[in-house]
Amino acid sequence: MQTYYTRATFQSLLDAMIPPTFTTDTCGITRSLGAVDIRLEDYVLWVLDDKLAPRLGLNEMPFNLSDSTAYVLDIAANQLIQNNQAIMVHNDPIFPGGWFTTLSRRDRLKAVMILEGLKVNVENLPFPYTNNPGFLLNMMDGLNRLILFGFYSEWIGYGEARFHPTTYQLAFLPPSWLQVGYPGPSFGYRDFRGYLLKMDHQGGVSYA
């Protein structure tokens, strides 16, 4: 079970990567949902702790993989602040947590870039990141892919069944599908499969 601190940290990460957007048309201002609006943190935390950690043999660790990942994000954020590289630090953040949650969206992404560039002392990182730069790089890349996949996949559309793979059934079209104009799955589409050819050979005519 993740702590409130961990959940707030991942909400901050999601808010920086896929924030809500606003468009203006003849009807006025329209707000498109961001990752936090659809509770995408549920998906990311679930994959990290219930799917990825057991495969890596980390499910016996004293804390969740999501907890240690949140702490790593905080270390990068604190380094950004200590080096006076943060544009703005909020004393009353939207997602109250650690240092990472106090940063602006732009600075949160800068903190992620610090980790992607291995510009931290890996000796000070929590397990399983301690002295493991390869794992850190893989996780930062994996988080980016995981967030984008979760947002644009059908996962949120499964509704209450989304945490139970054996009972998956699409309950509604995910908001991201509506944003990009994807109509949803189909039983099949018309497809060009070539021309009907006559092939002459001894004994008659055959078709291919």
From TrEMBL:
Domain of life: Bacteria
Organism expressing this protein natively: Texcoconibacillus texcoconensis
Name this protein carries in UniProt: Uncharacterized protein
